[in-house]
Write a structure and sequence with these properties.
Layout (H helix, E strand, L loop, with lengths): L8 H7 E3 L10 H6 L3 E6 L5 H10 L4 E5 L9 H18 L5 E5 L3 H10 L7 E6 L7 H15 L4 E6 L2 H4 L1 H17 L7 E3 L1 H6 L15 H14 L9 E6 L16 H5 L3 H9 L2 H13 L5 E3 L5 H6 L5 H11 L6 E3 L6 E3 L4 H14 L1 E2 L5 H10 L1
Parallel strand pairs: 2-3, 2-9, 3-4, 4-5, 5-6, 6-7, 7-8, 8-9
Antiparallel strand pairs: 1-12, 10-11
Helix pairs in contact: 5-6, 8-10, 15-16
């Protein structure tokens, strides 16, 4: 597996100082979690799943979830489960699949059923997404994933989704997150990443955020996100990679507020029309939310439309400036401060060290862009392909 592998060699040479490196199931857990990028959800009931997955892989998608939960009607769950198993088996028969594949189940027994039904498909299954993860329900799911791993003879990962009322409600939040943190610590080697279910959080209050706003404008939800990162996203060895919530919109509409994308970067790249196209498809809001995800300690993102993948990955690549700062910070472990080589900020070696380490980890899977290359260049290359 490799990010941006669908770009041709000349384009890669033009864009990247250091190209993205391959990654795989046997990689270090944190590296694999960082490589998730945009995780595309698709209903497990789709009849053309094998074709769809192959097509998305060719377009640069590197992680997908076959969804048996919210995306599937109650009376279609069994059909979806059978279809998910058949799809994984069929993909395995074709050879290695260049992406991470997960199944989001509804109940813990669904994990065992899928594992017991899989044939060749066990070779392409990365793990399971656990919905509405709580301190009460979580252990049963994680034990089921462990049992499935033993049955299939393959290390399977779990990705819990934090979205329940116990976490959303202020009076129970801290206690619930402490309990969840303890449970996840017991299964650390199996937890690939922690996902945030902002749609369910909004539903607790009857809210659906408008496309002119990001999730960070919904205060009751952003407070929950901040506490999830505080409890579960620490960089002291106790935390996990936290992935961003879904952006729901992808079609043209009448706008109430001004677009969230500045014009200047696009004018400098002669890409004004491209900017207009992004705005018309609500991708300006997505780009803004991705930037806010990163600012709040979150990596990667749940997506429900293929057009969102390029935006997530374009903003995941490490810029030449970030790489220059990170390598300078890690050059010596003696503390102190020095001006950035770009002459626009101060780099403090001890406070910025963890940031620098995470930046180089991200660089290994998403690459480092050449000096002067911006997200506009990357996004244009990915969208125009």
């Amino acid at each position: 597996m490799q990010h941006f592998r669908h770009l041709d060699g000349a384009t890669m040479e033009e864009l990247f100082l250091h190209r993205p490196e391959p990654f795989g199931h046997s990689d270090d857990r944190d590296r694999l979690a960082t490589a998730l990028g945009a995780t595309l959800y698709v209903p497990a009931t789709r009849g053309d799943l094998v074709t769809t997955i192959s097509k998305r892989a060719a377009e640069g998608v590197t992680s997908m979830v076959l969804d048996l939960e919210d995306a599937v009607a109650d009376d279609e769950v069994e059909q979806g489960l059978q279809n998910a198993v058949a799809t994984l088996d069929a993909l395995a028969e074709r050879g290695p699949t260049p992406m991470m594949l997960f199944v989001r189940v509804r109940t813990a027994d669904g994990v065992g059923r899928i594992a017991s039904m899989l044939g060749a498909g066990k070779a392409v299954l990365t793990g399971f997404v656990v919905p509405k993860f709580t301190a009460h329900t979580g252990p049963v799911f994680l034990e089921a994933v462990a049992a499935a791993s033993d049955l299939l003879g393959r290390h399977l990962y779990a990705m819990p989704v934090i979205e329940s009322a116990e976490v959303v409600h202020r009076e129970t939040r801290d206690g619930e997150l402490r309990a969840i943190s303890s449970i996840l610590a017991e299964h650390r080697h199996r937890i690939l990443a922690v996902r945030i279910g902002a749609t369910d959080m909004c539903a607790t209050f009857g809210i659906r955020r408008d496309r002119d706003l990001t999730i960070y404008d919904v205060r009751v939800v952003v407070d929950v996100i901040a506490d999830i990162v505080n409890h579960l996203g620490r960089t002291d060895g106790t935390g996990f990679v936290i992935t961003g919530p879904v952006w729901e919109y992808f079609a043209d509409h009448e706008r109430m507020f001004r677009p969230m994308l500045r014009s200047t970067p696009f004018e400098e790249q002669d890409a004004v029309l491209f900017r207009q196209q992004l705005v018309s498809r609500d991708l300006d809001g997505l780009l803004r939310e991705i930037a806010l995800d990163r600012a709040n300690g979150i990596q990667g993102k749940t997506v429900i439309h293929p057009s969102h993948v390029a935006a997530v990955h374009a903003l995941s690549a490490v810029t030449h400036e970030e790489f220059h700062d990170a390598t300078d910070i890690l050059d010596r472990d003696t503390g102190g401060v020095q001006a950035s080589g770009y002459g626009n900020k101060m780099n403090e070696r001890r406070p910025h060290r963890t940031w620098a380490e995470q930046t180089l980890l991200r660089a290994s899977v998403f690459g480092v862009t050449r000096k002067g290359i911006t997200f506009v260049d990357l996004l244009t290359a990915l969208v125009d392909r």
